Amino acid sequence: MKNYLNYLRFIVSLILVSLMLSACSGGGSGSAGSAVSSGGSGGGATGSGGSGGTGSKAAVSNTVSGTITGFGSIVVDGQEYAESASTSYASEFKGTQHALAAAELNLGQHVNLTLDSSGKVVQAVVIPDLEGPVSSITSTVTVGTGSTAATLPAITVSGVLVVTNSDPTQGPVTAFGGGYTALTSVALADNVEVHGLLKSANGVDYVQATHIAKEPTFIGTRVIGTIANYNASANTFTLGSGSSAITINATGATVEPASTTLANGLVVSVWSSAAISNSSLTVTTVRVANPAFGATSFVGVSGPISAYVSQSSFVVNGLTVDASGVTLPGDVTALSNGLVVGVAGTINSSGTLVASKLHIFESDSVKAEPVFLQGSISNFVSAANFTVRGVQVDGSQSPTFSTGSTAANLVNGAFVRIKGTLTNNTVVATKIDFITPPASAVVNLIGQIQSYDATTNTVTITAKDFDKNQVVTAVLSSSVMYLNGTAANLTVGQLVDMIGIESTTAANTFNVNTVTFLPTPPSTWQGGSNGPSILLNGTISAVTPATGTVTSFVLHGLTINVGSASILSVTGATSTTLAVGEKVSAFVTVANGNVLTASVIQIY
């Protein structure tokens, strides 16, 4: 398990794709021609490059795999990849793919992107690395040695130790979901999903989490790691190390890709609907993750440097790299073992990656602003509390604004480009630019339906946030995803939140791939940031009291008093009561930036 992101942080065809994506957002966190900005197994001097295994593997192309570090379109390990109205989204749920909405992607999740020939995302598939109940919570565990040693709180999931990360030089800072706001939110026996980087220190394998989310119930067990002790006749192997090792029985399991031969050293993700019992697990799916790179392939990988000889000879995640043609950034004097990097280039006939790009995590420019967001502001309460593409943002900590702009320009519907750092599950903005949405930019459209034509599959809405009360046309994608309802709910007066991309051929027209149905607003709601009522959407992170009738709850870090609010729940909602982890929409009154009381609450 020491070379986990041998497979997870590769980018095929990066050099060609960099040319294709230049129009993705008109700027942002980096072009696809840059190497990925996070990933790799191991951190500091304790990481191991690994060999990537000896089994046969199917070659891949036009594929990106990594951690979501922002939204512009989709930002994976610091690089933007343009979405389109036809982009589909899925989640690896219970061992198979299930459709997902664009709005359900989150920071820190591991995602596999399939790109078309123009570099746009055809499909984005979210794949957790661990799933299962929390079997232990440890207040302090030491990982690393010497100057790299750190004492951290930890949890154990599916037999694997999990720690969080607050250091952007070591990979993406941990984000939380499902009602969690920090590792201290996690309780024993909680069912969770974890995305992260697998590392090893002092012979102990552990996951440095990039995203931890609570799941409402036990749905199964997912474990990821490197095959050891493979027995071909019995079709068994182990994942993990030492006392935490798990024996996997893969008899009858589906192996993906089908052409793969299992062998020691291959990185795999296994799935079972059962729980681990006596350190054993019978699985139904084995996904082999390491890609095969042929000569002349354009490849990007990331991780800690090992076997360093010189800039022209070192190893990253099992690939020998020659970066002699790349100039180091000014604040990095030399490469060394343990330095976390991303590299991109071509594979030559001897199997060496000849780098044309080199991305160094410890570089000042990377660690200062590791998160990038671009989109429409929503859920605006104050400069200290709003969201962009569903991510909570604090724009009150003296960020640099674009010329002629101030915090007063932060209102619902404003289209912004934000760079910042992730702290306490909130992006603290260091730079905020107000821009005109570039071609192919993703925007949110919130408003009430004026008309719906089922024949042309078009909807007109009065967009309360985008261009303030302007009537716009939404052309629904053939694969449009509906949240909190169905096409039958596309009725006049219905309040909706649509995610779409502005048409390049028709004015005030958007190609929409996600429609979220919202509750009927009170008469006091005027849309935008106007009062006295505003609309907030999100996941409850705390309730008071902990048991009994809830009198207040926390949403986006704000305490909302329930009072005499109407509490509604959509058909198929997981709950009809307010609870931690429940997704809700709430119309609330605000005074001096503090939420006072809800008038309407809808549970999903």
Automatic annotation (TrEMBL):
Q: List compositional bias (Gly residues) regions by residue number.
A: 39-55
Q: Which Pfam families does its entry note?
A: DUF5666
Instruction: Provide the residue span(s) of the region labelled Disordered.
Output: 35-56
Q: Which UniProt keywords apply?
A: Signal
Record's signal peptide: 1-23
- What InterPro entries has UniProt attached to this entry? DUF5666 (IPR043724)
PROSITE patterns given in the database record: PROKAR_LIPOPROTEIN
Sequence ranges assigned to domain DUF5666 in this UniProt record: 303-357, 375-432, 538-601
Protein name per its UniProtKB record: DUF5666 domain-containing protein
* Source organism of the structure: Sapientia aquatica
